[in-house]
Input
Amino acid sequence: MGFLSTLFGGKELSPEEQKQEQEAKQFDLMKYDGVRALKMGQADYAIRCFNEALKVRDDLETRDYLSQALIASGQLDSALGELQGLSAAEPSNQAIMLRMAHVAYMLEDYVLMAETCARAQAIDDRVPQVYYLYAQAYNGQGDRVGAIAMLTKAIALQEDYGEAYLLRAQTLLQTGDATSADKDAEWLQDNVGDHEDVLLLKARIEAARGAVEQALEQYGRVIDVNPFAIEAYRERGKLRFDSGDKNGASEDLQKVLELDPNLLADVSGEYSAEGIEEHVRRAYSALNPFGLP
Output
């Protein structure tokens, strides 16, 4: 026994105890370095830290952090694997289920997403987010009616659930029910205000109704809020083209082409990428001092 241990009545650690103490320090160091890195947005470094910590000790909280870091870094398959392991270890943990459903959504695995939502609902059927995610899963499988039903349940549980109103309106519009979609849009305008997504929704509702001038006005409001709103330029350009305003359509498609040329690939007829590209080339040729294409 060492002199200081003897003096203060302490016990000298055995080699095994010393090893365990060192491992505990190493585990804490790597785990909390990872937590700090994750909070700072350094997901890749956080992943390395958490993996090193897990080599020392298998710990569910660390695996939870690891799943978050993997999601942040875009490693969705690995994140899903971690979440499935966590769910098996804690089958009544609804928060893990909801995160797993979200990852399944990003992976476009809507069958797994729906199955996960059903499990989450069985744990607690009073959580609005469960029904919102369930609706996304239904939409992903093309079941608009099921999605609308789930969103209605979510809103019944949380009357101010703005995301649910927005998704329900978008889904109703896809079914052709512009009138019902507009009711949700009105709620959103009253409670959310001039949010880009709400304005774009309203523009699409007016376009679906054939109210061209009102739709053009709404698309303009979207662009006022976000000058880089590609979908607003594209949809307004198509509406202008269909209304005979070829110049306005050309202006909008020039803007789309500037922001992302690839988005013109699925447009056909006179409104094609080739026609617009030629128009843009002529429009900008004066800015090219060498006259090169």
User: Anything to note?
Assistant: Residues 15-39 form the longest helix (25 residues). The CA atoms of residues 111 and 192 lie 32 Å apart. DSSP finds 16 helices and no strands in the chain. Residues 266-271, 280-293 have pLDDT under 50 and may be disordered.
